[in-house]
Amino acid sequence: MLRKIIVNLFCFAIILYIASGILNTFAGRPDIELQVKDDAFVISSSKQGGQWAIDDITTLDIRNQLPNSISKIEGTSIWNSRIGQDQVSTIDGKEDYHVIFFLSEDSSPFITIELTSQTLIFLNQDSEAETLEWYNELRKAMNDTAS
User: Which residues are listed as membrane-spanning (predicted)?
Assistant: First the structure.
């Protein structure tokens, strides 16, 4: 009897492992792309995207932690990926920010882009090196636009 229970549990564990692999393959983190143009930047994924003017960036920063007080408006959260729009009641002493996420919460750092429209964009890639590369692209575009 005990042997039958152990065999059934083992089979169930194998089925769960295979199913999670299949789900992760088909419903895993959507690819996120950043394109920096002369006067604008475009972020796109299979779920959401947008284009914003480089001149509209008021702050560009790197963070290691996301804000705690977030209420969902719309979007997708699959495992530890977050794509979509949320409302943050307060962040860094500022109130009523519209927040757009293009990130994997397992990977840090996060690029924070603050826009003139009280919008915050959180963006990252799976690796720190790729995220820092995107940050440097955006920083260079801001410096080129300011010149």
Answer: 6-27
